[in-house]
Here is the input.
Amino acid sequence: MTDYQELVDYRRAVSNIYAGMRGETAGSPPDHAARSQRFRTERDALFKHHPQSPLSESQKERFSGLSYFDHDPSFRFTLPVEYNVEPGILEITLRDDGPLRLRRFGRVRFRVEDDELTLSLFWISGYGGGVLLPFKDLTSASETYGGGRYLLDTIKHADLGSENGRLVIDFNYAYNPSCAYNPRWDCPLTPVENDLPVRIAAGEKRFGG
Here is the structure.
């Protein structure tokens, strides 16, 4: 296969993994904890074996799996999207792709213990577009990647879905951007407004190499 064919195949694989997480594929486990474990197992296999893995060939040789916090159902939310947000566009320059424009279009509001928190939702400008939801928290740089993690990137099929018109926000599926694995990748990092003042001990941990 050409590089482009491999990339299409990789995107299809990611799409299938997320469809299984949403319970849309045959054999999807009925409970969220089992779906989360299946998601992690399939993602490890994709990283280990696929030619378009974010890992280099030398990293693949010694790769034994990504590191995660234990599944915690308290970090799963179904939330209405608030659209009455201050309009604004963030422009981020990526090394290989040039300017990336992120338009703030909504936010979600939720509670972690006694703290009421919000996260801004961004629309990636360009052909077709897509939703991007990055965040940082008090684990960033110590237990998780310092540049933040992603919950949604629908252009790349990272889509947690919705329930009864509400957006699913499940931090158990928080994952590292590709630049967390090696410096050949360039990724948009988390805007300051999505820096949470709490510890989100869920999802993927910092990559060990």
Residues 109 and 118 are 4 Å apart (CA to CA). The longest helix spans residues 3-21. The beta strands are 76-79, 88-94, 98-112, 115-124, 130-135, 149-153, 162-163, 166-170.
